[in-house]
Design goal:
Number of helices: 1
Structural class: mainly beta
Largest sheet: 6 strands, antiparallel
Radius of gyration: 16 Å
Length: about 190
């Protein structure tokens, strides 16, 4: 309880400060988004997971990070894709919960790209078609080294998973523990 209150307080401070920058979000499909990272539209990903607040189940109740390396002949050549997903499909300890936001610690630049084909660059994309998931972030903001993804009510709750959401950067993925915190509502 103390940990979740600390996380909630940290996220509230991030949102309330005047220096938070709103990021542009575009909706994309899979495998279409893969074509930006490889002209064949097939990508090899590396997945990392971290249990949401330490809830110990092997497959679910996790924050998943997926990394992609763009091919040399791809539109995003020389860059890296960073994708995330909140997966609460396994009820774990049986106590219902919802997550209203995820804060990712990310120090590198976000490279805007026209993921939607509308002529306007987006900072973040949400894969709403062709992949599993039921909800995506409604608001994305950046302050210093934190990227805050906020989900609309009724949030992401037990039994659900988000769409994959992500961005592109020149910063290579950091391996090891997933640098993120979540705000849990019980």
């Amino acid at each position: 309880m103390r940990h979740s209150l600390l996380v909630l307080l940290m996220c509230s401070i991030l949102v309330s400060t005047a220096h938070a920058q709103s990021l542009r979000v575009g909706q994309v499909n899979a495998p279409g988004v893969n074509c930006f990272y490889n002209p064949t539209c097939v990508v090899v990903v590396q997945d990392f997971t971290d249990h949401v607040l330490g809830m110990a189940t092997e497959r679910s109740n996790v924050l998943r990070m997926r990394t992609l390396v763009a091919a040399a002949d791809a539109p995003l050549a020389g860059l890296y894709g960073h994708q995330y997903q909140v997966d609460l499909r396994d009820p774990g300890d049986g106590v219902p919960m919802c997550i209203d936001r995820v804060a990712i610690d990310f120090r590198g630049p976000i490279v805007p790209f026209d993921y939607t084909g509308d002529g306007v660059g987006q900072d973040v994309y949400v894969i709403t078609r062709g992949s599993m998931g039921a909800i995506g972030p409604a608001v994305v903001q950046r302050q210093d080294n934190a990227i805050l993804f906020r989900f609309p009510p009724p949030f992401v709750c037990t039994g659900e998973t988000t769409f994959f959401f992500g961005f592109t950067s020149s910063e290579a993925p950091r391996l090891g523990g997933l640098p993120a915190e979540v705000s849990v509502m019980r």
